[in-house]
Fold this protein.
Amino acid sequence: MSTAAELRAALADGLAEHGTPTDPAWRDAVRSVPRELFTRAYFTRVGDSFPAGYRPMREGEPGWLEGIYTDQTLVTQLDGRVRPDDVAGGTVTGSPSSSSTLPSLVLRMWQQLGAHAGHKVLEVGTGTGYSTALGAHRLGDTRLTSVEYDPAVGEAAAAAIRAAGYAPRLIIGDGLRGDPDGGPYDRVIATCSVRYIPLPWLHQVRPGGRILVTLSGWSYANALALLHVTGPGEATGRFLPGHTSFMIARPHDRPPRPHLALLPGEERPSRIDPAKLDDWTGGWVAQLAAPSAERLGGGDRQILWDVSTGSQARTAPHPDGGWTVVQRGPVRLWDRVERAVQLWQAAGEPHQERFGLTVSAAGQRVWLGDDDGPGWDLPI
Ligand SMILES: C[S@@+](CC[C@H](N)C(=O)[O-])C[C@H]1O[C@@H](n2cnc3c(N)ncnc32)[C@H](O)[C@@H]1O
């Protein structure tokens, strides 16, 4: 059986072999930080049922250490409260609300951030503290501050980071407010996603600084953006290649909706194939067009439900070919989604890396192609 140090070295080497960009200094961080200190207990997914089922995996159980040194995300909290040690045995269901992100993604993001020695960095979403410890190893304790929203998660992370021998500045609070007392920063990196860029970040990062954050929403579509701060309250940048997704920042999560009830409405043929919304970028474009809608269903039976107005849209295949859509409520959700998807299709259905985001006093706008191209305003 391999020791933790051997597994850690194999993980660091494996990341390099599988294409994760590998600045030797970051690889050294992976070799040095014991992930097991941050994931003494985690959840493993059971089957592919919905809602998702999880079983606790505790220190010393067969497969515990091997799971930690596999390049995978380890869920450590469900529904904002249930931790593995709260579960006596068997399977629980829930939505992941905290985790240790897969090491290859953590490493890739630290490198995409372009943080160098001497930079002052704010991390939003401490989680288990593993990514924080990697950052502290590479950048130094005094250059790094990390914010965690959930007090129980933040306290456990603080203990683990201490046990690993690091001492960055740790804050328990809402990272969407940034760190009003600690700026200015050179970099902000978020390991939770947002519906729009929090304005405090744009004032706490100095001009010339960068913000790396995943833009998500209530239809669960994600894209990773690298923004360059151009002035106080202003930034612009592009979305990056790949398929990065993160749990949404808790204050940006959608409000609870009533039990799903499909109601009658106006029916017409759909001008697009509803299954386009299952595409990684197609679903994200639809989310830009209808940002307060939750997407349910899939394939040619999509359901959009706008949680702020109660508006609905649902599609179905037509027996003679093509598809129909039924819409009701003050927001014609499918009209908006259709227009956005057609624009995207006319551009050749590109990945998000052909899109960018500009933030200014006038608002926050995602655009396709160039910053004067077609675009969508984010729901600030
Ligand atoms: C994917 S986990 C972070 C993973 C972590 N960086 C690691 O490697 O272990 C996302 C974390 O963001 C936290 N979070 C959510 N909303 C937040 C907010 N507004 N401010 C700070 N943290 C937040 C969650 O509680 C959760 O712990």
